[in-house]
Amino acid sequence: MRAVSALAALSLTATLVGVSAPSEAAASARPRAAEPPKRATAYGSGGAVTSVDPYATQIGLRVLRAGGNATDAAVATAAALGVTEPFSAGIGGGGYFVHYSARTGKVQTIDGRETAPAAMPHDAFIDPTTGKPYNFSPELVTSGVSVGVPGTLATWQRALDRWGTRSLGASLRPAARLADRGFVVDQTFNSQVEQNKQRFTAFVPTKRLYWRGGHAPAVGSTFRNPDLAATYRLLARKGTKAFYRGAIAGEIVRAVRRPPKTADTTLPVPRGYLVRRDLKRYRALDRRPTRIGYRGLDVYGMAPSSSGGSTVGEALNILERSDLAGMPRAQALHRYLEASALAFADRGAYVGDPAQVDVPLRDLLSDRFAAERACLISPTATLAKPVAAGDITSYDGRCASSGAAGTTANDTENVETTNLTVADRWGNVVEYTLTIEQTGGSGIVVPGRGFLLNNELTDFTATYDPADPNRIEPLKRPRSSMAPTIVLRHGRPALAVGSPGGSTIITTVLQVLVNRLDLGMTLPEAIAAPRVTQRNTTTDQAEPAFEQRYGAALEALGHDVVPYQDIFTGTQEIGAATGIEFRGRRLVVAAEPTRRGGGAAAVVHPN
Ligand code: GLU
Predict the structure, then answer these.
(1) N or C: which end of the chain has fewer CB within 10 A?
(2) Atom number in ligand 1 closest to CA 459
(3) Per-residue confidence at 33, pLDDT binned at 50, 70, 90?
(4) pLDDT for 434-443, tens place per residue?
(5) Residue 561: which domain range?
(6) CA angle at residue 94 from 74 to 270, to 5 degrees?
């Protein structure tokens, strides 16, 4: 019954009040540096791109119009995001690429997560002068020791090898041109530099690029990055080996081991352990996706080293046992919050890099395990948080006693990152989330190369505990929350969605899916709707509009709904999603209408 209603919802709802994509002519009639038109929704056919940034979306759309496929366009879009969104993503970082092939009907993924150096000790995050962990911010986040081997360039090459039709060089050139010609600085870019003033002025090349003339690039000015343009052109000519073995590898190692500090910075900037061999041995890994059934649909996500697929999947398995569509809204949201807390408890206990940790993925995604977890949810009361992890060694799907108390790990994942969704005329789909971790990554621009290095290793638990699946180990990938997700209906794409936001990525993707699949919203509505995040903490953290609308009703059930605020940026926004819904050949393409200044959705043939 429930399966039928979800299928019907997907194929019948959505009133299409459309705004179309920018036309090429309209875009090229403008002066070079003018921002392309930006719309949060687009409707049409023939392929689509949606990202946080209009330049990147436009570049991806051009690739599609010129006959490129979804992978070609996704890589070109991501390369452009490395230019216009350099504080969220770029070749100094990593990410997860999820692909649906129309030819094979398969969803496959690439794990391009940053990796710890071979010499990384267990106490890498302990300050040798005090014997205590470094302060997280700004000391640890602004360091060589938090820089993992970047995986993004290897991901692009691997994706193009597996599914693309164009070379890496062809995919990088439009972004190189963009970096040369420049783009118009918007409020987000300007604020991100301002927020990072102390960190960005701590390094000679970063200060030179982003604090030129003693201030952040002004809103409305044109920002150029010729070093990055030259780096992209070098990589276009020489391929990934220039990065992982050649000149750039040596420069990355130097920047990590002897960060190019300015004379007047007071930041300590702990040095890292990276050597050339770490870069040489790096591989982007092919991974089987996670898969769960949800109300007759198949939901595919990113397997560990990300916790995205397992946590979203487990929460959906728990939620599938409730008729969310048929219950009052506050009750449905209560269940969403409780399911999220339970899934986060299990994430903390069991998920880490599968190369070094035995992750019980099958158990975490089993319906019987979910049944037992769902039993803990009361319709009239709220579980005491943090809840304990479930016992994956013994479960039988029957209700056990009430949930025991658990612990909440200190959550220091940041809220930046970026996400893009692409579909092509042949029906291939890409959902891709990429990051350099915190806004501005480590703060270290590789001298002369124009890109920032990540600080992804801060996603490891800072203090070493052999029982923690996310403990620091050499050559390990820190656990991620990135959750690029593709939903199939009878083997054909129904929905693709993803978001940035550190550990709120998981709740954002989950909430968008629930909004769309259960609560009767269109995809643009599901993305625009106010958000709340519950990550096994005593409070539910909400955007102001959510709190106003549902706070009282949820508090009557025992929730403590408080305003969300990111500790580093102060933002009250949760996530910045993009997504595409597939209605036969018709595409509903969505980005954020207002979060992060609004995103850019575009379609090849608007209607
Ligand atoms: N480092 C985070 C992760 O891998 C992403 C950071 C972010 O979204 O800002 O899950």
Answers:
(1) N
(2) 1
(3) low
(4) 999 999 999 9
(5) 292-413+481-485+498-569
(6) 155
